[in-house]
Every structure is written in structure tokens, then in C-alpha cells.
Amino acid sequence: MILLAIILGLSAALLLLGGGYLFGVRQGYETRKNLQDLNRALAREVARLRETVPLARADEDGLRSALQDILTPLVQRERLSIDMSRLEGSSGQQRDLTAVLNQMAEKGNFTSVLLSDAQGWRIAASSTTQDPERLGATASLLLLLADRIGRDGSPAPLSLMVLDAANLTTLCRFFTAGNQRLTLTVVATGGQITPSIVDPALARLTSMLLNKDAAAPDVV
Q1: Largest separation between any pair of C-alpha atoms in the chain
Q2: pLDDT of 8
Q3: Among 158, 164, 166, 197, which is least packed, fewest CB within 10 Å?
């Protein structure tokens, strides 16, 4: 029971610390520093517990394994967030948009990456994207659903996710560039992506679409 309480308490602390820091380079730096500090704190706590509460070797190994299982996804998401904020590409050229989406597919291990307009028409897609017309139609339908949810003053979703019977997760992130409504859609195997996983990439894409510096574009 003591071991279970320790693991649950540390899990809650980790999730609280990690939840607010997974966006962009600055947030990534803060997250990494907090994780390092937390690692040291956990090591001190394990040492203290070893002195005050005798733990069997199996219990100690189990605690370390549980902590590792908790930390690994947070570190991976923080690293991916940083990678998404460092996409390289110049402004305005179709081939450069494709190159950026290819980088996203590689860094995020996405099977498909599609940038489409409000009607679902393709603007650019990664080289690995299969059946972009069908994916664009899905993105358009989900955008309509988001608009319906946001009627009558209700908060409109910024993204929607769908998990299908083939264990593929489709994430549609809605944003605007200028006056144009767009959808960035990614597909990945399993349930490892989050609704905000592509947010750090929106600044680069918006700057390329508007042909301006990516220092501080407005992304909604």
C-alpha cells in the first residue's frame, strides 16, 4: 500500500508539472529543467524511503520501473514539441510547404500530414500521405462538426481526434492564416498523439502561407 501511494502521488505531481510546459522551445527548456529537478527530487525521495521504510529489492525495482514509465512519455512529448517548433522552410513555395510537412511526418512518426482549406481541398501534403482526397474530406467534415459545436456562443474546438478500427488516430487542428480557414491533419498509429501535438508547427506554416517572418504570427 505504501508503494502504491508513493507511485500515485508521484504520478500526479509529474502530470501537473508536465501538463503546462509542452509547447515551444521556451516551454521545452522549462520542461526539461523541471524534469531534471524532479528526477533529482525523486532520487532523494527513494533514498529517504529506503531509510525510513524498508523496501524489498523487488519493490524498489518496481518503483524505479514505474517512475521510468511515467517519465518516458513526458520526455518524448517534450522533445517532439521542440522538434515541431524547429521546422525549416522558406516562405511561399509549394515545394517548401511539402518539405516542412515531410519533416513533420518524420519527426512525429506520422503516416500522413495534410494541409487543406475549409472545403477539404489539398494545399500541401507530405510525400507519405495516402488518399489525400479522402483525408481532406474527413478534415472538412470535422471542421463542420467543430463549427456546430461552437454555435450559440459555445467555445469552438481547436482540434478534433478520431480513432478508427484499424488503430489509426486522425488529428485535425483548425487554424487561420490571414482570412483563410485551414486544417492541419496528421495520422498516426495508436493513441500516442495529443490534441495539441502539432501546435508548435503552426507558426512556421502560417508564416510561410502569409510570406512573412515567423517571429510572432497570430495563430488561432
Answers
A1: 64
A2: 44
A3: 166
Phi and psi dihedrals of 217, rounded to 5?
A: -70, 150
pLDDT one-digit tens code per residue, 36-85: 676 677 667 666 666 666 555 556 667 667 766 666 656 556 665 666 65
What's the whole-number average pLDDT of the chain? 75
**Domain ranges in the chain?**
2-84, 94-210
**How far is CA 36 from its chain centroid?**
21
In words, the CATH class of domain 94-210 is alpha beta
CA distances in angstroms from 5 to 2, 88, 154, listed in the order given: 5, 45, 39
Q: Are 185 and 112 in contact (CB under 8 A)?
A: yes
For residues 159, 129, 201, 23, the Cα torsion angle rounded to the nearest 10 degrees is 60
Model-wide pTM > 0.70: no
In angstroms, the CA 10 to CA 6 distance is: 6
